[in-house]
TrEMBL record:
SUPFAM superfamilies per UniProt: Cysteine proteinases
Protein's name in the database: Peptidase C51 domain-containing protein
Domain of life: Bacteria
The Peptidase C51 domain, residue ranges: 21-103
Organism this protein belongs to: Anaeromyxobacter diazotrophicus
Length: 159
């Protein structure tokens, strides 16, 4: 799994998801497909978007009840708080305070997004002053990334 996370981490800033000469296609699910392929566990052909990956994780019992992400986990995001999963990212690392750095492919390329599910509606922790959630655009307004999380899955760690 570490090799999978390292491989997709190498794509930060890149517009295309291409590893070892394989183009995994457009969209945010391409990053998940690349991670699974690098882990030697290619995803089924029908897992082409976030909704299909979410359905696969649900069918395999791989949605986490704790919502505490670890490196290699998938994080499913909505377009609006409370919405269905339409985006997916791969957790690059989890910090001790519960903040996770999630790699997500957007139109500009692969970018890291910080989110903390313990404080989903806040961007900063007033007790420490630490930045815990990046802002993502929802329509014309910016919302904390943690408020858009639908679920977390350990599908990549499952056998």
């Amino acid at each position: 799994m570490a090799a999978a996370v390292k491989a997709v981490s190498s794509l930060v800033g890149q517009r295309q998801v291409v590893l070892a000469g394989v183009d995994y296609g457009p969209g945010c699910a391409a990053l998940a497909r690349a991670a699974f392929a690098r882990a030697g566990r290619p995803l089924p052909a029908e897992a082409r978007d976030a909704a299909a990956l979410h359905a696969l994780a649900q069918a395999r019992g791989a949605l986490l009840p704790t919502r505490t992400p670890s490196a290699g986990d998938l994080v499913f995001l909505a377009d609006r708080p409370g919405g269905p999963p339409v985006h997916v990212g791969v957790v690059e690392r989890a910090e001790a305070d519960g903040t996770a750095v999630v790699l997500h492919r957007v139109a500009r390329g692969v970018l890291p997004v910080r989110l903390n599910l313990a404080y989903p509606s806040r961007s900063d922790d007033p007790a420490t002053g630490k930045h815990i959630n990046d802002a993502l655009r929802v329509g014309a307004r910016a919302v904390p990334a943690g408020s858009l999380v639908v679920s977390v899955s350990d599908l990549l760690r499952r056998r």
